[in-house]
Amino acid sequence: MKRLLFYCQHILGMGHLVRSMEIVRGLVHEFQICFINGGEIVEGFTIPAGVEVVNLPAIKTDAEFQTLQPVNTSLTLAEVQEQRKNQLLEVCDRFQPDVLMIELFPFGRGKFSFELIPLLEAARSLPSPAKVVCSLRDIVVTKRDQAKYEDKVCRLMNQYFDLLLVHGDPRFQTLEDTFSRVYDLQCPVCYTGYVVQPQPQPAVLEHANSPLILVSVGGGRFGHELLECVAKTAPLLATQLPHTIQMFTGPFMPESGFAKLQAMAIDSPNLKVNRFTPNLLTYMQQADLSISMSGYNTTMNVLTTGVRAMILPFTGNDDQEQTIRAAKLAKLGVVEMIRPEDLHPKVFAEKVIASLQRQPHQVRFDFNGVAQTTYFLKELVAAKQVAFVG
User: Residue 239's pLDDT is what?
Assistant: First the structure.
């Protein structure tokens, strides 16, 4: 089997990790895979059998994406960066990948150039040089100096990359919508369709009353204002309809915030608070309403299950990705977009009740991202083999 080295760095939420691992799950029968995880380890997160995982000394960031921080506070950032760079080069030399797949970079993760540029150079210098692929979500974060940013992306893509895979459906969102210089890229640009999790088999979930309202915020480093609003709204909703609110705060939510929400739940029998479940999609299948942020993976779960949804975009560091996605889906009538001014218990309770009364509305996008990613990578490796033999 051909060897694929997959690099993923999640620094705030866990969406990049979830999407990357779903791709890996589809590739595991076609490639020998070594998965590089640069972010904090998520307890209970499942890894496909047969995948080698290398956990680098973890790095995270603040909610405004201003500073990098080592998760192990006994080390300085400089020490962690040096350890990571050396470990990546050792893995590349040992594993000898046929394909190096890097999630997001160079469209994002520019602060990780200290390790990614040496890795790219090493992959290109192997006896049989690796083909290099960028794995990219549908919406690119815009920058204050967009022209300078796009110039740098084009330069790095054209210098190092053989293929760009955009995990989206151009009928809904094109790369050109947020990155104007697509036609200056010299490698093929292929849309794979959206990467989604396969629908699990129906399972019985224990919740006291229907309807079931599911509340989640991904990794849990942000979205706390949404969780607190739901917890404060729970007593109001309890007087208006029988229901259960199942809240997942995310594995990275600070302990103080988690304890506060659990304390609020003691006085609200309709509210259950847990940190994390690997079975979020099962809950979403059976929920009558999903309340969440509008990140890529959660939104895909909403779309594939057809659940009624209220979604709040993350706007830290003036990031417009989730706002763009949420606004487009709201315009199509698929979701109800939550705005900051809605985060008051009385207003929020009215919106929840109205959303529960709304008819679910499904859309048909291309959700074959995993299968088509596998296809494009196999084609790339086949072309490399022909060229190498030639």
Answer: 94
- For residue 222, what are the domain limits? 212-357
d(CA 137, CA 17): 12
According to DSSP, residue 34 is labeled: E
- For residue 36, what pLDDT is reported? 98
pLDDT of residue 202: 75
Q: Is the dihedral of CA 49, 98, 124, 150 positive or negative?
A: negative
Please give the full DSSP string across 352-382, using - where no structure is assigned. Answer: HHHHHHSPP--------HHHHHHHHHHHHHH
Instruction: Report how many domains make up the chain.
Output: 2
Pairing, β 309-312 against β 289-293 = parallel
* Closest of 140, 196, 125 to residue 370, by C-alpha: 196
Q: What percent of the chain clears pLDDT 90, i.e. is strictly above it? A: 84
Q: How many CA atoms lie within 13 A of 289 on its CB side?
A: 21
Dist. CA 311–CA 163, nearest whole Å: 33
Query: For position 106, which CATH number holds?
Result: 3.40.50.2000
Q: Is the dihedral of CA 105, 125, 47, 257 positive or negative?
A: negative
Q: Do 182 and 331 fall into the same domain? A: no
State mean pLDDT over 323-352.
Answer: 96
The reply to whether 199 falls in a domain is no
Tell me how far apart the alpha carbons of residues 186 and 174 are, in angstroms, rounded to a whole number: 18
Residue 54 region by backbone torsions, left for phi larger than 0, else alpha for psi between -120 and 50, else beta: beta
In this structure, are 306 and 333 located in the same domain? Answer: yes
* Closest by Cα among 212, 198, 207, 209 to 290: 212
Which secondary-structure segment (H or E) carries 48? none
Sign of CA dihedral 222, 228, 234, 236: negative
Beta partners for residue 163, in sequence order? 133
Together in a domain, 30 and 162? yes
pLDDT tens, position by position, 225-258 = 999 999 999 999 999 999 999 999 999 999 999 9
Give the C-alpha separation, 327 to 311, whole Å: 10
